[in-house]
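User: structure tokens for this one?
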Amino acid sequence: MSTATINELSALLSELSKVTADIDNRGVELASAEYRYRVEFSKALLQGRAEGYPATLLLDVCRGLDTVANARFQRDVAQAGYDATRERINAIKLNIRILDGQLNRDLELAGKTT
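Assistant:
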């Protein structure tokens, strides 16, 4: 049994704990950004209707407003951060499974030769 493999496995488990805690923060950031975007978009829609914009153009006009576009951009950035964190968790879990399999094979081989 390789102590280097066990140390690497321990480091990955520690990193997994940190990243899973981070995804909570990323989720809150994403939800907040989505909330801000929806509020800005709703305000813009109401204002556009009050100003008499045609319904066929209203959505496009509102999405092009600076405040709405910025809120949408911030939401998209938060979504990308959340997705990247989720993928990092999956990659760490895969590495853990690989090391676990390697340790199990080493243990089986050690048991057969003794």
